[in-house]
Specification:
Elements: E1 2-8, E2 14-20, H1 27-33, E3 52-55, H2 66-74, E4 82-84, E5 98-101
Parallel strand pairs: 1-5
Antiparallel strand pairs: 1-2, 3-4, 3-5
Length: 105
Amino acid sequence: MDVLIKIKDREGVVHELQAPTDMAMNVMELCKAYELPVEGTCGGMAMCASCQCYVLNDVSLPEMGEDEEAMLSEAFYVKSNSRLGCQIPITVDLEGLELELAPES
């Protein structure tokens, strides 16, 4: 089953992405699959913040882990709604999620 996730890129264009829930993907990998400008330099290990995004609506997300919190405490352009895309697995709970890509640092 796919879920709809909306992602606003750095130019303000909103992309409506169909995200498969059966492939163990995360938001960073989804962005890369749709060729959105997300680096994911560390390969999804919460060690670079190049997949930082802002959560724009109230959708149930997994709790932030220690690694993600530590990385965001050192990253640029962090806001109260910042998350690392690599730490958000795509599940049916994400239906309707709206994100905005953080500026590149």
